[in-house]
Amino acid sequence: MQEIILQARDIRKTYQEGTVATEVLKGVNLDIRSDEITAIIGKSGSGKSTLLHILGTLDTQSSGSLKFKGQELSTLSNSDKAKFRNKSLGFVYQFHHLLGDFTAKENVMMPLLIAGISSATAEQTAKNYLEKVGLLSRLDYKPGEMSGGERQRVAIARALCGQPQMVLADEPTGNLDATNASSVFDLFNQLVHEQHTAVVMVTHDRSLAERCDRIVEIKDGTVNV
Ligand code: ADP
Fold it and tell me: Most buried of 8, 65, 161, 168 (most Cβ within 10 A)?
């Protein structure tokens, strides 16, 4: 059964640069549910990344309420936000953001080790997830030794291996050619539904958005669904 994981109410964001104030978000209302991929679309500069960063507590709204399973997030301290992200969220970016000096397995293990999981368990979990994304033969490869599609698969394994309740994805296939983008999305789609994860995915690619469970559009700084 789907459950509301995140509730955003009247989220506003103004960037102040010197004397110039830019109001990017002008009252966003949005519910994010488990077992559902919500695509956020909108023109370039419409505030998609800003909203995603706020939903993931990487940035703070100027005003408005953001509740994760009923708990207000904006009042958490920075260190509590970091703990919350590590425990409950996963992130996938357009550029994989893997650590170049570490192998695929070590990259996937990293968030588990940070969460205090023993290295033996972290290693086994990383192997399981790299197997799920079809990369058992690449465990000891470094990002520079893998293709773009393989790197995004590692990034997906890293985002999902801690079984986060919500995953935030910013153009996760935006750097791949159409065939690779499609197969990486299929895999992501399958895994997040297996884990009943809530997903917010920013994309400018309408055909990809149409393969998600729901599309919401940011227009004139607002989203109302
Ligand atoms: P999108 O992801 O839809 O392309 P963004 O959220 O990146 O849009 O940006 C929305 C608007 O906010 C843009 O006009 C951008 O210039 C502005 N903006 C984003 N981040 C900052 C920042 N840190 N400081 C000032 N303005 C910003």
Answer: 168
